[in-house]
Amino acid sequence: MAVRRRGVRGFDGAVLRAARERRSMSVEELELATGTRASLIDSYEEGRRTPKWKTLDALATALSTTVGELRPGHATTMEDLRCGAGESQAAAAAAAGLTRSGYAMLENGHTRTLRLEVAQKLAATWEVQEEEVLKAHAAVVQAPGTPPPVLEGAVLGGIAAHFGVDPKTLLDLARTIQNQNDGGTS
Asked: What is the number of other CB atoms lying within 10 angstroms of the CB of residue 36?
């Protein structure tokens, strides 16, 4: 029977153990530094459990590393930032001035355009930089298996040339239409 894992996606217990050993820290010392039980740290390192964001952040801080280094190969997503701030989708939606479903579409990459004012509101709420929110959204939009936006690069230039308009003007028009189709929720 498969173990159901909860907590931070992409967490690697072996990387946690290596970070702890590099610092010449015992599990008990890490327990004192973080307030996380030694038995729980052992289960994280052995891959039997996965820490929540707050715990992972405390472990990373105590080990003078980053949460990202304890999640090798995993880009930070909007869900990661939201969970790291301890917020629900409903709370994030309210902070951004969106409906919950509108926010969920954005978080899951179904809404490809993240308006700057929405990114700014989320950044302030989550206490991160605006660029982190934009990068996290882009990571979901460009996730493996997700087709890239059609209106970019040579395609954008070709269509703009065909209609005799500036590519930026065409892109702005496409975003306006997309926002209208998305209910203006991004």
From this structure: 19
